Amino acid sequence: MLCRKFGATGLAVIALLAVAGCGDNGDGEAPDTAPPVLAVSPVALDGPYDPVRDAYGDVTFAHRDAVLPFGFEIRPGVYSCGFEYYTVVDAPVRAASSGVVVYMFQNEGSSDFEIHIRPTQRSVWDVQHDHVLGPTVQEGSPVAAGDVLGSSGEWSATIRRTELSVSRIEGPGTDRSYCPLQFASDLFAAEHQALLDAVNAHGFGPYDSLCSTDVCLP
């Protein structure tokens, strides 16, 4: 994946996209362009750091990264187009936003799932929760922010992981992923800032932000 920086203009770009829309859905009705609101952190971020569990909330500091920021270069030319959280075993994964499950599928070679939630059935915005074990929802299920979707997906015997990303559906090969913090409620933003501070304080990174870029292009 390739990432492109929009700098301080990221929110302005989203606003313009929301106004412009993507055309109708083939039935004469315009799509819903209102962006989602990420009201709840997908994994518990109730600090402070707990040395007994070696964790901040459900994010484990036993993994070398703890959390991967948006735009993080995983390997040369491949970037994280969302937030990837490394968690304790059996950590609940919660819906970050309200909406409806438009589709979900099991990841190839894994027992965990990718779940896509949109604010409405006609929305051009897609909130993805990837690497979810034992999903408690199905396609067509309505969800409220904070509803448990399952638990963190596979990684190792003692560490799990899950990802959160937000995309605008613009057509094959043109979808864009945006840093989740651009859609954050005050609570979501504050919890992630506190996580970032804890990550830096414990020798990870250091990261200036959980968003090293605004937009990620597949």
Task: Write the SSE topology.
Layout lengths: L1 E3 L5 H11 L34 E2 L2 E2 L6 E2 L4 E3 L2 E2 L3 E5 L4 E3 L4 E8 L6 E6 L6 E9 L8 E2 L4 E5 L7 E9 L7 E3 L7 H16 L13 E3 L1
Antiparallel strand pairs: 1-16, 2-3, 4-7, 5-6, 7-14, 8-13, 9-10, 9-12, 10-11, 11-13, 11-14, 14-15, 15-16
- The CATH homologous superfamily is named Glucose Permease (Domain IIA)
Mean pLDDT: 87
Radius of gyration: 17 Å
Query: The biggest beta sheet, please?
Result: 12 strands, antiparallel
Taken in chain order, the helices and strands follow as EHEEEEEEEEEEEEEEHE
The name of the CATH architecture is: Distorted Sandwich
Task: State the total count of DSSP E strands.
Answer: 16
What's the N-to-C terminus distance? 5 Å
Briefly, what CATH class?
A: Mainly Beta
CATH topology: Glucose Permease (Domain IIA)
Q: What's the total helix number?
A: 2
Low-confidence stretches: 1-24
| Shape, per Cα inertia axes | globular
Overall number of domains:
1
Helix-and-strand structural type: alpha+beta
Task: Name the beta content range.
Answer: 25-35%
Question: Can I get a quick summary?
Answer:
Helices cover 12% and strands 31% of the residues. With 218 residues, it is α+β, with helices and mostly antiparallel strands.
What does this entry look like structurally?
The chain has about 220 residues and is an alpha+beta fold. It has a single domain, classed as Distorted Sandwich (Glucose Permease (Domain IIA)). About 10% of the residues lie in helices and about 30% in strands. It contains two helices and 16 strands. The chain has helices at about 10-20, 185-200, and strands at about 1-5, 55, 60, 65-70, 75, 80, 85, 90-95, 100-105, 115-120, 125-135, 140-145, 150, 160-170, 175-180, 215. The strands form three sheets. Strands 1, 4, 7, 8, 9, 10, 11, 12, 13, 14, 15 and 16 form a twelve-stranded antiparallel beta sheet that branches. It has a two-stranded antiparallel ribbon with strand order 2-3.
